[in-house]
Structures are given as structure tokens and as C-alpha cells.
Amino acid sequence: MSEMTGRAVTAVAGTNIALCKYWGKREAALNLPATGSLSLTLDKLGTCTTVAFDLEDRAGAEDRVTLDGAPAAPAFRDRVSAFLDRVRARAGTRARARVTTDNSVPTAAGLASSASGFAALAVAASRAAGLALEPAELSALARLGSGSAARSIFGGFVEMARGISADGADAIAHPMSAGDGWDVRLVVAVTARGEKPLGSTAAMELTARTSPFYAAWVAAAEADLAAARAAIGARDLGALGAVAERSALRMHATALAAEPAIIYWNPATLAAIEAVRALRARGTPAYFTIDAGPHVKALCAAADADAVAAALAAVPGVLRTIGAAPGPGARVVEET
After folding, report:
1. Averaged over 82-100, what is the pLDDT?
2. What are the CA-CA distances from residue 56 to residues 6, 60, 66, 332 (Å)?
3. Sign of the CA dihedral 97, 86, 156, 112?
4. Phi, psi dihedral angles at 259 (to 5 degrees)
């Protein structure tokens, strides 16, 4: 049992973009992934969350959740409360919480807001509840809210293990020190406004259940991870970019083959892909990846980031570009 502090704890976490994708679960209740994954945590995009528990145990009280300055929608509030229930169970308390969370990226739009959101929530809520969790424990806790959030606990290049344990104890992320200091950038081309038509959790389930390509996707994941590890160790941008493009295209092909088909791309998505390929053909090493949404992210060297951003900004349908560098892991920034 922990000692409740009564303090408001604020934590921040950067979003992460998977280069070897997470797409599918081996067990849904604990968010256990069907494959390992590998990502890059970013410096500019993410979530800031403040959690304070009410030390008075008031009957019938509910968690109060604010998202981007407004009361959260019931579905989001319930998801946060379910996560807080896990924290409460571990801390031995029934106290309700006040949660204020702000995203610097659109929520549920395919820009990994859930990864940074639940990583920040895991850090802030556990500390506010009086728990002192090690990074590996925080990774396992964050995974319960969102599978990709396990990676945002750490900065830079991060690998998430599939694990084999039924309780998920080994389905955690760890930082990849081989990538420390590698001066790469990820340029995001935003190609749509608003939330994506189908959330990642539902889309993963549909893909796993109906896509004839799903088994092949799972079978190919370990080879991609091995190739990505080797590329990061060698600081070989071309090799890492090739893995990133292959993993993204295979993930979307698997989803496209689901019934009904899951189509996240729009015309600007395809045009941005072609712009990245054209850059590469002209001698600028840049490589695309696309998560469960329509936005295109281009991996490149820091020296080429401005040129890549300019080329993507010129694509019809691209609303804006965002350049990001490798960023730190989730952390507490204030206790009051």
C-alpha cells in the first residue's frame, strides 16, 4: 500500500512513431502485442497531464477528466477512469481523481496521441497515488492504457517486446542505447483534420479477425525488428528507412485486406509518399512511414530536414508540416 500525497503531479510525455509497427494483440485485456515493435520518441509532439487524487472518500464520486480545456467525452473519460482503477488497486485506495490533459497533437487522428497520453497519465497518476515505480514498471502500466504508450516511457529509439508471459510481465519496452545521439529527424506531413474514421483498437481487432494477410504480417515482424536493430547499431539511415517503409506498407496492406476494408489513406497521403520517393531519387535520403491514419512521416538526417519539410509542404492536400527530433522519455515536471 502506498502513501497518498494529496499533491497535484504534472507529467509530460512525447509521442512516438513506430518504425516497426505494432498492429494486433495476442491478448486484448492486458494489451499484449502480437509482435514486437520499434519506435522513435519525439521532442515536440506529446501530452502534458496533471493528476490529483481527492483524499476524501466521497460516496458516488467520479473522476473528473478535462481534455484540451473542455470536459472529456464520456468514452475518453471512462477509458481514463478504467486506467486509474488499475493505479488505485495497486496503491490500495478508492480516491477519485482530477485529471487535466492537453495534447500538442490532434487526439485520435493517427498521430499517436494515445501513446503520449497514457505514458504521461501513467507517470503522473502513479506518483500522485504515492507509488514509486521503476521505468520497466511504468512501461507495463502505460501499456494497459495503450499498447504504444509503453514505448513513450523512454526517449529516443525504443523497442517494445512482444513477451510470452500470460500476465504481460515481459511485454515491456526498453531504450536502445545504440541510437543515442544519432542526429535524425522525423518530418510529419499532416494531411487531414479531425479524428480518423476507425480507432486503432477496433481496426486491429477487425484486421486480426478477417484479414487473410494477418498471419503473414505477424510472421514477418521478427525479421524486420532484427534488421532495424542492426541498422540503428550501424547508424545506417538507408537500411532503417527501408525497414520502416516495408513495415508501414505491410501493415496497411493487412488492414486493406480486412473485411470490410480499412482505408486510412487519402489522396494527399499517396502524393506525400511519392514526394518522399522523388526526394530520394534526386539524392536526398528520406523514408516514409504511416501509422493508423492518413498522415505521412518522413525519416531523414537533420541536415536534410528543411528540404524534406519544404517538399512535403508543397504537396497538394498537405495542411502543414512538423519537424521533430528524438526526444526524452516521460517524466514528472511539477508537483504542487
Report:
1. 96
2. 10, 12, 20, 24
3. negative
4. -125, 110
Joined grid coordinates for residue 315: 504537396
Closest CA to 301 of 278, 318, 279, 332: 279
Of 31, 327, 280, which is closest to residue 152 (Cα–Cα)? 327
> Over the stretch 180-209, which tens digit does the pLDDT of each residue have?
999 999 999 999 988 888 888 999 999 999
What are the CA-CA distances from residue 144 to residues 160, 204, 310, 316 (Å)? 14, 16, 38, 39
User: How far from 297 is each of 17, 64, 120, 148, CA to CA, in Å?
Assistant: 8, 34, 23, 17
Per-residue model confidence as pLDDT tens digits over 117-154: 999 999 999 999 999 999 999 999 999 999 999 999 99
Burial 273-305 (b: 16+ CB within 10 A, else e): bebbeebbeeebebbbbbbbbbbbbbbbeeebb
Which of 141, 128, 138 shows the shortest CA–CA distance to 51?
Answer: 128
Q: Are 84 and 50 in contact (CB under 8 A)?
A: no
Helix (H) or strand (E) holding 333: strand 331-335
Global pTM value: 0.94
Domains, the chain, with CATH or none: 9-181 (3.30.230.10), 184-324 (3.30.70.890)
* Cα atoms in the Cβ-side hemisphere of radius 13 Å centred on 154: 26
Give one DSSP letter per residue of 96-154, joined into a string.
-EEEEEEESS-TTSSS-HHHHHHHHHHHHHHHHTT----HHHHHHHHHHH-TTHHHHTS
